[in-house]
Amino acid sequence: MANPFESAQSSSFAIRPSVVVIFGATGDLTHRKLVPGLYNLSVDGHLPTHFSLVGFARREWTDAELRASLLEGVEKHSRRRKIDQAIWNEFASHCHYVVGGFRDPAAYEVLKSKLNELDKAAGVEHDRIFYFATSPNFFELIAGMLKDVGLLERGREGYREAPRSRVIVEKPFGRDLSSARELNTALLHSMDEDQIYRIDHYLGKETVQNLLVFRFANGIFEPIWNHKYIDHVEISVCESIGVGSRAGYFDKAGILRDIVQNHALQLLCLVGLEPPVAFEADAVRDEKVKVLRSVHRLNAAEVRQNVVRARYLAGSVAGEKVNGYLAEEGVDPDSETETFVAMRLAIDNWRWAGVPFFLRAGKRLAKRVTEISIHFRSAPHTLFQGEDLELLRPNILSFEIQPDEGISLRISSKPPGPRVRVQEVNMDFSYGTSFGIEPPEAYERLLLDCMRADPTLFTRNDEIEEAWDLVSPLLSMWESKEGQTPPVYGYESGTWGPKAADELLQREIGRGWRRL
Questions:
Q1: pTM for this structure?
Q2: How far apart are CA 202 and CA 211, in angstroms?
Q3: How far apart are CA 466 and CA 351, in angstroms?
Q4: Quick check: 351 and 272 in contact, CB under 8 A?
Q5: What is d(CA 312, CA 308) in angstroms, rounded to the nearest whole number?
Q6: What is the spatial distance between Cα 312 and Cα 490, in angstroms, rounded to a whole number?
Q7: pLDDT tens-digit profile of 329-376?
Q8: Are 450 and 200 in contact (CB under 8 A)?
Q9: Residues 30, 31, 35, 36, Cα dihedral to 10°
Q10: Annotated active-site positions, please?
Q11: Cβ burial 413-427 (10 Å sphere, 16+ → b, else e)
C-alpha cells in the first residue's frame, strides 16, 4: 500500500520528520479538532513520511484503545465524513499512548524513552511538537517537567534556525495583563520564545489569511484602505449557542476574555496593519503589535460611553426555546458575567485617524456568523437628486469568516428598464464555488505550520500582553466594587443583542449594526 504521507516530501510544504505529542489526549479538543485535522492532512498528503502521534494522559489505555477512541472522533468530526480506511489504518499505526499524570516525573521519562524509540525505529531524528491540550493551570507545570527531563532542548544548533522542540499552547493566555505576563515569564523559563506557538484558531481560517492577500496583492484596494475613503469598520463574532458545558469556565471569564481579547482583536489587527516588509513571521507580527499599541486606551468615562455589555435572557433560537444565562447549569445566580459586548475603538495613527472600529461578540444571538465589514464613505449624490436617497447606500466590502467563508462587495447598479434607477447588488466570492474544494479546517493549517516551524499565524508574547493591556480598563471597571459600574443589559435569546448596542452606532453613523 502506498504511504499516504509520502507526497509531502516532494511538495513545497516539505517538512522534517515530526512527532506530535498531545497532553490531554483523551480530551474533547483532541477528538474534535486535533486528530481529525491531522487525519485530513494525511489525506491531502501534507504529513511527512516519518510522522507519529503520541497521546499522553492519565487514563489507563493501551495503544489500541487510543486508536479506537480517536477513530470515533474522526468519524464524527472530520470534515471528510467518509473515512478512507486504508489511510486511517496507516495513520493509526503511527499513534501511540503513554499513561501518566502531569505531575509524575516518571511518566515524562517514559515519554522520553518512547520518543527516542520512535527516532531509532525510523532511523531519523523527529522534530517534537508538544501540544498542551489541557487546562491553562497545567501549562507551567508541563513545560517545567519537559525541561527537567531534557525534552525542550533546541537541538541541531547551526543546522537551521528553527528549534527541534516546539510547544503549542491553547488559549486562554492568562485572564488579565498580570497573569498573562506571569504565564509568559513561566514559559520562557523553560524554553525560548521561538519555541512557543500560542494558537488562536481564527488565524488559521482561510478568509482571515486571505485578508492579507486581498489587501496587498490587489493594487485597487490598498490605495483606498485609509481614513480618506473608509467611513467605519464593523467586526462581528456572533454565536447562536449558549455556554453549554463550558458554564464553569465561562462564568469566570465572560465574552470579553473569551472572544474579544483574542479573536476579535486579531481580526482588527489584520484590517488595520501596515504592509509588512515581508510575509514572514516577525514582520507580520511586528505590524500587528503596532496596531494594538496604536489603539486608544479607554478611560472610565469612555468605557461608559463606548462599551455595552449584556447577557442573554430566555428566548427562542432557530425555533427552540432556551433558558436565560442565569438559569444555565453551573452559572452563579448572582453572576455579573457578560455574554455580549459591543464597543467602539479608535486606532490613533495616520492611516486610521477618525475612523471608528465597532466590535461586537455575543452568545445566543440570531445566528452563528463572524464577519468583517468595511464601510466606505458615500459617493456624492449630485447626479441622483431625484432618486430615493435611501437606495444610494455606501459600498460595503465584507469578509465572512464563518460559517461560509467568502468575500462580498456591495455596489450600486442600474436595474434593467428605461428609467435610470439605482439598486444595490453584491459581487460575491466563496471558496466552495470559486475553487471547487472545501477549505481546510483552521487547526489543519496551524498544525501544519507548526510542523513547518512557521509561526506567522501564531501570536507572540508582546502581542498577547498588548491585547490584555487594551481590555484591562474595561475589566477593572466592571469588576470594581467602587464607583459607578456600567449596567449589564439583558437581551432576548435569538435576537442581535441589546438596543444599547445599536444606539452605540446610531449616535455616530446614524444607523445600527449591519444586518447579517
A1: 0.90
A2: 12
A3: 20
A4: yes
A5: 13
A6: 6
A7: 999 999 999 999 999 999 999 999 999 999 999 999 999 999 999 999
A8: no
A9: -140
A10: 263
A11: eeeeeeeeebeeeee
